[in-house]
Design brief:
Two copies of one chain form a homodimer. Chain A is of the alpha/beta class. Chain A has helices at about 10-20, 35-45, 70-75, 135-145, 155-185, 195-205, 220-230, 235-250; strands at about 5, 25-30, 50, 60-65, 85, 105-110, 125-130, 150.
Chain lengths: ~260, ~260
């Protein structure tokens, strides 16, 4: 399968490297910024272009790994017609690709990807969707080369996965950041929280999270909660969050 | 060091077992409920009582491992005077113990402890505090037997640690639970989120969380955020949380 990869961000980088590691042939990289494209192409050991006209028109698969906002722009005047094209976005409908090709789908790796940190793609669930059984089979075959967990989901399910991912990853990471800041204020090292962070994540691997909920809110310990709210007086946003989340944890219909 | 352990909950259980594993002698367990005390005493291979009058008065250390609410009740009529007593609570001042003994302190393991799940105590930070250098040294020696990370903090710092722990553990776990529920609604398996949960936690081990923040809020992608808010219409509490946290993530003074 000869692939053209479009994009130079975190996802394009990590996905490109995962493909390279499995000897899947990336025949060209396209990036709107010439310097970014050159940089990543060097890493992926493949030719690159920053001109749409120069995009190879006979690849087996075009992987659009750009941010959601950039998808319409990159799709405009893309010199392909019948080849299979996929996007990699959690919250974008598959049908956005119907305007550029007869064969299209989605290839969505459910993971938080940074340029700074390597990721073991074999454990990253890849959510696939396609406009035909034949295209789905092609995507499944490719996904199975780089990941042990390939799952077919429809666009609605994928959007729900993305929404859930915002809670369990983006929002969780923000709370790690709040924790770090609270510690800094009292000259405490963020390292102190790390075993707790890992244990909390590990617990979720083996238990339904609701069944292992701990802390003042689930015990409805108003003394501590009031005390914490008072301690957060300098941080009205966090105070509001503390109040809302504690109330949500102790809602009886949560059971 | 001959220890009397007071309490039969998650913390008493996990701490007792960590002490037992290191051959620290628990000479007696006290629990207000006779059946709970009997059960845990059996596990800890030690005598037990549910009568305060029968508490051994000559131990070297009394560890009060009960919930914050229960501390005043358990302290009343405790038959000790000069022996070292510690509590294990994140948000309770050390001085609450001054009424029962001349020698007191705090022994606070910073971890989320469940009866269901074993924990490797050697990686649990133990935060100690005491009313004298001598008592502090005793606590440090005991803590070092079961943990590799012993740190002296004052009551104010300990309360801040507890507050931060609520964010990075209790609230985080609640978000895992929201993720699980969102997936269930669309017939999706919670397992799909697990690699993401672990990767997000792992990232925090090696990077300051703010520097690896990803997602729609940090990119200020209003299209996706509006879409997510619409998807949460059936969950007004989560919708409100989504809005507040996204705004907090994108606040410029976060930098």
């Amino acid at each position: 399968m000869r692939i053209v990869l479009l994009g130079t961000g975190n996802l394009a980088t990590r996905l490109g490297m995962a493909l390279l590691a499995k000897n899947v042939e990336i025949i060209q990289l396209f990036g709107r910024s010439r310097s970014s494209a050159a940089l990543l192409a060097n890493l992926l050991e493949c030719p690159f272009t920053s001109s749409k006209k120069e995009i190879i028109a006979e690849a087996d698969l075009y992987i659009l790994a750009v941010s959601d906002d950039a998808i319409p722009d990159v799709l405009t005047d893309l010199p392909i017609r019948e080849q299979l094209i996929v996007h990699t976005a959690g919250s974008v409908s598959m049908n956005i690709l119907a305007t550029v090709s007869k064969n299209y789908g989605v290839f969505y790796p459910l993971q938080t990807l940074s340029k700074q940190k390597e990721v073991d793609f074999s454990s990253v669930p890849i959510c696939i969707e396609a406009n035909s059984a034949e295209n789905l089979a092609k995507l499944r075959a490719l996904a199975a080369i780089i990941s042990d967990q390939v799952v077919q989901v429809d666009s609605m399910q994928r959007k729900q996965l993305h929404l859930a991912a915002v809670f369990v990853s983006n929002f969780v990471n923000h709370f790690y950041s709040i924790g770090e800041k609270l510690l800094l204020e009292k000259q405490l090292d963020f390292d102190l929280l790390k075993p707790l962070i890992m244990e909390t994540a590990n617990k979720a691997m083996h238990h339904s999270p609701r069944t292992v909920q701990t802390g003042p809110a689930i015990r409805n310990n108003k003394t501590i909660m009031d005390h914490h709210l008072k301690m957060l007086e300098q941080h009205p946003e966090w105070q509001k969050l503390y109040e809302l989340i504690s109330r949500d944890i102790s809602r009886p219909d949560q059971e």
